[in-house]
Amino acid sequence: MSQRAFINKIAPAAVEDWKAYGVPASLTIAQAILESNWGASELATRANNLFGIKGNGSAGTYTKVSDEYVNGKKVQKTSDFRKYNSWIESIRDHTQFLLKPRYAKVIGADWKTACREVYDSGYATDPAYPEKLKRIIEQYKLYEYDRKDGVQMRPILIIDAGHGGSDPGAVGNGLREKDLTLQISNYQYARFQALGVPVTLTRTSDVTLTPDQRTKVVRDSGAKYCLSNHINAGGGNGVEAIYSIFSSDKLAKTLAQAVSACGTNFRRVFSKKGTGGKDYYFMHRETGSVETVILEYGFIDDAADALKLKDNWKTYAESVVKAFCEYIGVSYHLPTGPSTKSVDNVLIEVNGVHLPVKGYLQNGVSYLPVRAVSEAVGVSPEWDAATKQVKLNGRNLNAAITDGTSFAPARELAVALGLKVEWGGTTKTVKLTNGCVCPHS
Q1: What are residue 115's phi and psi, to 5 degrees?
Q2: C-alpha angle 84/101/62, rounded to 5°?
Q3: Mapping DSSP to helix (H, G, I), strand (E, B) and coil, where does residue 72 land?
Q4: At the topology level of CATH, where does 3-145 sit?
Q5: Phi and psi dihedrals of 40, rounded to 5?
Q6: Can you name the residues that pair with 164 across neighbouring β-strands?
Q7: What is the H or E stretch that residue 385 is in?
Q8: What is residue 369's predicted lDDT score, i.e. its pLDDT?
Q9: How far apart are the first and last CA of the chain?
Q10: Helix residue spans in 359-409 (DSSP H)
Q11: CB-based burial of residue 419 (10 Å sphere; 0-12 exposed, 13-18 middle, 19+ buried)?
Q12: For 157-328, CATH number?
């Protein structure tokens, strides 16, 4: 395969993931070139692994000896590498791998920054790795793939799901703060993505972040704003927002008032000074020039607030999305499916069988009808009419409702059903097959 043919083969998937998740397409393509020797390496040909990612992949593992650098010296080491069914699966997994919090500065970055940050964050051990990537990008003009409507994007907002992992946060009335904040944050992330707002996250799963790790992700994100989602405790009820002593209260008031308008008490908006004329809260004190608002959606130890949080969390989250869009001057619309005139229809194949229904592609993300796909593998979804929440195998889905049908992102649906997912770009087909969706290491 020629060099140009290799680029042409993998570029569409790299661009799709750039638009959907913010991993620069130029970085993805350059890493694939460097790591796989233009698709000719042993890993690429025998394991469909373009990036040298270790661990257990969708098709198992492949063991081989590879070069690594230890204290600046090249050594050989035997390791298990992820094995995939196709190069497309390898690209998708590479994208998910870089969505880990430690790679936050890569997301939405320009290509030069991304080359440096992916190395600094621990992806490779070769000290020459960043310069090798840069030379490849420059020689083949891969930066031309890093365009969204002709404009290179950096995140304007980073969403912080408070607490997580070994830190549950506040607990009360059968709820845990870390679960609610992650649920709210992931929903808001998906909505901002759909609305075209450049956005990233400090965490996407139930992981532990120290204050230093959390604030570094925020500082390094390149974002202008940070929304730190929290649930209160200690006596009281209603929503409150906290802003830096060095910031205006305008954004904090805007967000708190939006949540209050959903039917909860507006408690207060305030800032708090610590010692030495600095902010009291580390999320203000240690996040640099990023304007951070800590938003407390309610009191978990107040029975009435807890019930509202359980039943209305998505309404609260959506109100913040709307308010923030209006604050920064971005067009907002409700989370309904788009008309067939504005999107491509997506074919669906489950275990080799084409379904008689279609999904749709929006902003680089494939959305599939939840009930049709889940019932094709013998699983029935749960539907809460009051909250309009779709649940599958105990997992809440970020679903959009179109003409009474729930649609969810293909990858999210696949994870909930324990399926592998592959995108057929030529035929616009999402292919779902039985198999373990293995966690990223």
Answers
A1: -60, -40
A2: 20
A3: coil
A4: Lysozyme (1.10.530)
A5: -100, 0
A6: 167
A7: none
A8: 86
A9: 31
A10: 370-376
A11: buried
A12: 3.40.630.40
pLDDT at residue 338, rounded to an integer: 44
- Return the domain boundaries, the chain: 3-145, 157-328, 344-434
Higher pLDDT, 402 or 175: 175
Annotate 293-322 with DSSP letters as a single string: EEEEEEETTSHHHHHHHHHHHHHHHHHHHH
275-318: pLDDT as tens digits: 999 999 999 999 999 999 999 999 999 999 999 999 999 899 99
3-state secondary structure 132-176: HHHHHHHHCCHHHHCCECCECCCCCEEEEECCECCECCCEECCEE
Report DSSP state, residue 222.
Answer: -
Here the tokens at position 130 are 């960043």
- Report the percentage of the chain scoring pLDDT > 90: 44
Residue recorded with tokens 């308008």: 261
Instruction: Give, in order, the Cα–Cα distances in Å from 410 to each of 205, 343, 359.
Output: 18, 16, 9
DSSP state of 29: H
Give Cβ neighbours of residue 93 (< 8 Å, ≥ 6 apart): 53, 57, 58, 82, 84, 440
Q: How many residues does the chain have?
A: 441
Q: Strand 359-362 relative to strand 344-350: parallel, antiparallel, unpaired? A: antiparallel
